[in-house]
Design a protein that fits this description.
- This protein is an alpha+beta fold and about 575 residues long.
- The chain is built from 24 helices and 14 strands.
- Helix 7 runs antiparallel to helix 8 and helix 8 runs antiparallel to helix 9.
């Protein structure tokens, strides 16, 4: 800045902050000089570091601000960011510099911000039930944890219980990984979860099947790879009975429009009319007469379909189709009104309101080999770039699937689902551990922030079942009070010794004596004294021999001894110590 420096001083209450006054300047300039940190780049000089990290600003005074250039400044030695300034006309004013106030949301739905050297928070006020507020992803994830959302894919389908993309992914994973409702340990961890792309990549020449007289004039294609792909999409109808069972399940879930559309795609228009009539009766019974009447009209329209050359029926339905809002009803008429044009097929394939599985299954049925490969390649690229979670059934849980999950996390912040899905197969955990480890550790930290320690411990346990090679991070260690070296490893090594006389009573590093139990006076690794009656403690229960202590007075002993002591006492067992350990622990 132009001008001569009139004043230069450090702020006494704010380390690293330099204040200066320039001539002809009615403001005070502050320069925050950061301390040299470990983030300094190799070869970066101190001046380069300052130039890259310096942060200067110009505090603007409030009412009564000095309009004339400043001439001098004196900071108060104790009052935070407060001082006196004087301008060149001799006017003195008290000046207080307010720090920038960074604001963020905590993991407990409260707003956290810093004021000077204090951290403050504002609790989130719950709104009335009449006000609909879009929930943050952290709130959604916390609610899932409370409902036992975890590695078990079959349970997650029941828990989510909706028709969302995430629920469809878990439904697909439960079928692929062999998950069941009983136990996550029964998951087939060694099974590779492949997607449709792994099948289409080795696509052999397909046989062309001519259309039937009552269906649209489009040939269908079939080969073993297409059959597997259709099964992955849920369209594995090898006979009419399987198709009927599928349509009935959709009608039971009151998805009549989807049932009718898939029946049409399978060439059974009569069955589609039946689904629409059943839907009309159900909607009327639920007093949704408008929707029921619409389904009846659609059923009536279908009854006049003819697969002959363009007719008045097709011309009329082309105009009506644009006014239909339901995606499956719209797709059904787009297919029937396409005539012999392939563009009508792509109208269905490009409708993003249809589920991805249905669009891919439709493509596997009606597109030839070249068009099918091109369509799947473009669709896979799109779902991976957009992080569309339902695209996992295309990519499978491989490198492309991990990239899709990364984009999904970046878009939604749902790290919970990302790590749970990645943990469905051992191949992902072993080959891409460095890619997914951040999700696992981030989710563990989130559970700790929510104080859901039981759920976090269960998550660690199930992760170990899924990946036996995973080594749990040590979260606590017993240190020597003299040399501060860990003695936990020595304790674990001696747990296997049968003879208590062989156990060490000193630190393996400095050989100083280890703490003694306040009740039996044996060293903390020496085990429970046999002279005391412990009928209530199973000898095989290792917890009774663990050493525990009060966080206030630091006195402790074997867990079994302390539990017995505090059954009849409230005060610390050490003489002359009046600490109410048991009350503090509660």
């Amino acid at each position: 800045r132009p001008g001569r420096v009139l004043h230069l001083s450090w702020m006494p209450t704010r380390p690293g902050c330099l204040s200066l006054i320039l001539s002809e300047a009615p403001y005070l300039r502050l320069i925050n000089i950061p301390f040299l940190s470990q983030t300094q780049d190799a070869g970066e000089t101190y001046m380069d570091y300052l130039n890259n990290h310096i942060n200067d600003r110009y505090p603007i005074s409030g009412p009564g601000a000095l309009s004339k250039p400043l001439s001098s400044l004196q900071w108060h030695s104790e009052w935070y960011n407060t001082g006196l300034v004087i301008n060149n006309e001799g006017v003195v004013k008290e000046l207080t510099v307010y720090d920038k106030m960074p604001i963020t949301w905590s993991s407990h739905d409260s707003m956290v911000f810093a004021v000077n050297d204090q951290m403050r928070s504002v609790e989130y006020a719950k709104k009335s039930e009449d006000v609909k507020i879009e929930e943050d992803i952290s709130t959604i994830m916390m609610d899932r944890v409370k409902r036992n959302y975890g590695f078990n894919a079959a349970k997650n389908v029941v828990l989510l219980g909706d028709s969302s993309s995430l629920c469809r992914v878990w439904n697909w994973l439960s079928k692929q990984s062999g998950s069941n409702l009983s136990d996550v340990s029964k998951l087939d961890r060694g099974k590779r979860i492949s997607g449709v792309n792994s099948v289409s990549g080795s696509l052999s020449t397909s046989s062309q099947n001519p259309p039937s007289s009552s269906s649209p004039p489009f040939p269908t294609y079939s080969n073993p790879q297409r059959t597997v792909a259709l099964e992955l999409c849920g369209w594995g109808f090898s006979n009419n009975q399987q198709l009927e069972d599928f349509l009935k399940s959709e009608e039971t879930a009151e998805r009549f429009e989807r049932a009718a559309a898939i029946a049409v795609f399978q060439g059974d228009i009569g069955r589609a009319i039946g689904s629409l009539k059943d839907g009309a009766l159900t909607k009327t019974r639920h007093k949704d007469t408008l929707h029921g009447s619409l389904l009846n009209l659609i059923a009536l329209s279908l009854s006049g379909y003819s697969s002959s050359e363009p007719s008045l029926w097709q011309e009329t339905c082309v105009m009506i189709r644009k006014q239909i809002s339901h995606p499956y009803l719209r797709a059904m008429f787009s297919f029937l009104c396409a005539g012999t044009s392939v563009d009508g097929l792509y109208t269905v394939l490009m409708d993003s309101e249809l589920t991805l599985q249905d669009r891919v299954a439709f493509a596997c049925t009606y597109l030839n080999d070249k068009n099918l490969k091109d369509y799947l390649a473009k669709l896979t690229k799109k779902v991976v770039e957009e992080g569309f979670i339902e695209g996992l059934f295309l990519t499978g849980l491989d490198a492309s699937g991990i990239e899709l999950l990364e984009n999904y996390v970046n878009k939604t912040g749902d790290v919970q689902s990302a790590c749970l899905i990645a943990g469905q197969t051992l191949s992902v955990l072993s080959k891409t551990k460095h890619s997914v480890s951040a999700w696992f550790e981030g989710y563990r930290d989130l559970l700790d922030q929510w104080q859901m320690w039981k759920e976090r411990a269960l998550f660690d346990h199930e992760r170990k079942l899924l990946d036996p090679s995973h080594k749990a991070v040590r979260q606590a260690a017993v240190l020597c009070t003299f040399c501060s070296k860990a003695i936990s490893n020595d304790i674990l090594r001696q747990e296997g010794m049968k003879s208590l006389s062989k156990k060490s009573t000193s630190c393996p590093s400095c050989r100083k004596p280890l703490p003694r139990c306040a009740l039996c006076l044996l060293h903390m690794v020496a085990g429970i004294s046999k002279g005391r009656d412990h009928s209530s403690t199973n000898q095989s229960d290792q917890f009774g021999q663990w050493f525990t202590w009060c966080q206030t007075c630091r006195h402790g002993g074997h867990a079994a001894h302390l539990a017995e002591w505090f059954e009849s006492h409230e005060v610390c067992p050490v003489s002359d110590c009046m600490c109410y350990c048991i009350s503090l622990d509660l």
